[in-house]
């Protein structure tokens, strides 16, 4: 069967590929009915532009469709809105077949292009918001929309058709050959699911991108995955605006920084420390500290809480030289939210060696949290003095959160005497 | 011995150090948020921003300069595993 291109606007064609059998995308996403790799062809009086390509396994289908709407020697422009391999798999072969084409990528895509094509000798034009290409009666304008969901991502707007080639933005994994949102099956769940797993960690960047997209006249949104949005495209833009708002209303936001203390305890020792940390934090005005026993909770709601929190603290015993699994489970589930620059800290009781606190602190730093106060470790049952240290630890965390901490000046020689980082 | 003062903005700590100390030696000890990968100036994991006092840092080596350029670093960025502090006041933060 011939793979036919699909006209989506005058002289604009979908030349992508359907992948109905895919069940897991990029390790992290389930795809219950597959996905599509959408690529497009725009014909102008002076040249032809190809917008994105497809996953390498689908290159034949892509070229079959392309050849029905353009000759290779007509192609003057290749635009890559996003360089992930599912959109650039056919790029090397396209560049070979269309030697007259100039490559247009975002500024941040340059290193990725070198990584993908494994060549230093590449010719391309980096573009930014407002840059345009005239295809002859057809004008492509670029919108730099970084981190949706890679540093390189951009959108390309075809002015004459009010058509936005949006890359992964407004996309979803849903495979239906009928292509248009008013003809395909019910893909609402896929649209939401895609946002929650792909765009959610970058919601500040989503808001910045919407600032560029919302003023546009929009008759059609042509994303890189899933249905082409021709019926009510603006509703999808509005939905992104809603999804990029904070998920939970924070009653205390105006008056308090939020500090979440998660703990798990074998014999009640780490639990007692956790209580003291909370009491210490609460002793500072302007902090709302909350205590959660991880044994009584599930990961997903805690992830939602953490997304909106200002600081997170983990209390763990050390069992066989490690922090305990429920804490690692939570810490390995934070990739769907932005936690960079939040305040982080750790504490815990231990029987033999007590490595958990340092391991958790290292993990928090690795996740790019600030870890300004060294954690408290207590051997087995905390004494009154040790609980007072926990209280003081909580107070210091609260002072950091509220910006009341007095800056410390220390000498390197003092640091060299200490086994780990300086006690606050 | 000449001294320099390095302030880690993310944790609000200033450390007085001997001239010639590499940032990595201080930041790991004090628990600042700069994270490390190869520790040999190749992976750029420890890229940090010099908020002020770049003139008080060692010059970029050829290797550091190459790695920073490859990672599209601005002129305010350095690798904490390579950069040494020389004198005066320096303020850094992760990233």
Write up this protein.
The complex is a heterodimer of chains A (424) and B (95). Chain A is an alpha/beta fold and 424 residues long. Chain A folds into two domains: 6-243, Metallo-beta-lactamase, Chain A, CATH 3.60.15; 257-417, Rossmann fold. Helices cover 30% and strands 23% of the residues of chain A. Chain A has 13 helices and 22 strands. Chain A has helices spanning 59-67, 85-88, 91-97, 110-117, 188-199, 203-213, 233-243, 269-282, 299-308, 325-331, 356-366, 384-401, 412-417, and strands at 6-9, 12-14, 17-19, 24-25, 29-30, 35-37, 40-43, 48-51, 75-79, 102-106, 125-127, 132-134, 139-144, 154-158, 163-167, 220-223, 257-263, 287-293, 311-315, 343-350, 376-379, 408-411. In chain A, strand 1 (6-9) and strand 2 form a beta hairpin. In chain A, helix 6 runs antiparallel to helix 7 (233-243) and helix 8 (269-282) crosses helix 12 (384-401). The termini of chain A are far apart. The model of chain A has no long low-confidence stretch (mean pLDDT 93). Chain B is of the alpha+beta class and 95 residues long. Chain B has a single domain (3-94), classed as Roll (Ubiquitin-like (UB roll)). Chain B is 18% helix and 29% strand. Chain B is built from two helices and five strands. In chain B, strands 2-1-5-3-4 form a five-stranded mixed sheet, covered by helices on one side. In chain B, strand 1 (3-8) and strand 2 form a beta hairpin. Chain B starts with a strand and ends with a strand. The interface between A and B is medium-sized, with 26 and 24 residues. Strand 22 (408-411) of chain A pairs parallel with strand 2 (13-18) of chain B, so a sheet runs across the interface.
